[in-house]
Amino acid sequence: MRILQVEDEPAAARMLAKGLREQGYAVDTAHDGAEATYKVAINQYDLIILDIVLRGQDGFSICRDLRSTGFSSPILMLTARDAVDDRVRGLDVGADDYLTKPFDYLELLARVRALLRRRPSPYVDVIEVGDLRVDIKARTVTRCNRNIDLTAKEYTILEYLASRKGQLVSREDLSEHAWDENFDPFSNLIEVYILRLRKKIDVTHTIKLLRTRRGEGYMLTAEPHAPAFDD
Fold first, then answer.
1. Does residue 44 contact residue 176 with C-beta atoms inside 8 Å?
2. What is the CATH class of 2-116?
3. Cα gap 17→20, rounded to integer Å
4. Worst-scoring range by mean pLDDT, 6-20, 54-68, 69-83, 208-222?
5. Which of 165, 149, 156 is nearest to 200 (CA)?
6. What SS3 class is residue 140?
7. Is pLDDT at 121 greater than 80 in this prediction?
């Protein structure tokens, strides 16, 4: 999942981004409304974490502007303001949730997970691909009822492929959702992670679920007759 945080304090932005990345999220940062609007126009974000108190345009007007452009992914507002009027105003301009600073990091993660479950796209708690089971809520993966240990990034990639099961996912699409704006499109990171995932979920099984179509992308499927895929 790819998150945009809008925060003008560099230290706070670095700390929050680091924590989210450790959970497997791809994180971009914008420091003001103009940068946030630009990044939303050129990237696909599953969630925005928006500070209200910013230099220049405040979070309320940024949120209103984003909604006016048709941006429909969840927006979580962060602020030091605890007044009821501010919380109501934030929700009225289009925010989905509101968290007051200082906040507990575990609560922030819980709210992020809850908001991602409310995305406009269809969402389920568990995705099954053949005998592979991806539990979105618990962030666990099993195959034939045996646990598969994945790193945060491996899980992020597998979850996205599982959410698109049976569909060809291009390299560009995968990088958009699993990496942030610093991803080097000429690196071989995607191929490295796909190889690692294949070893963990497929190597001991006769039926291979993770398929590659050379030069086009990847598919997670239990369909044995998926056309023109390489092992």
1. yes
2. alpha beta
3. 5
4. 69-83
5. 149
6. strand
7. no
- Residue boundaries of the structural domains of the chain: 2-116, 126-220
Tell me, which fold does domain 126-220 have in CATH?
Arc Repressor Mutant, subunit A (1.10.10)
User: Which residue type occupies 102?
Assistant: P
Residue 110 dihedral angles phi and psi, to the nearest 5°: -65, -40
Length of the chain: 231
pLDDT value of residue 88: 83
Angle at 18 between CA 12 and CA 20, to 5 degrees: 105
pTM for the whole structure = 0.67
Distance CA 96, CA 85 (A): 16
Give per-residue burial for 92-110: e unless 16+ CB within 10 Å, then b: ebbbbbbbeeeeeeeebee
Distance between start and end Cα atoms, the chain: 26
* 5 token code pair: 């945080």
Confidence category of residue 191, pLDDT binned at 50, 70, 90: very high
Buried b (16+ CB within 10 A) or exposed e, 131-168: ebbbebeeeebebeeeebebeebbbbbbbbbbbbbeee
Q: Is the pLDDT of residue 213 over 80?
A: yes
- The overall average pLDDT reported for the chain is 87
214-225 residue pLDDT tens: 888 999 999 876
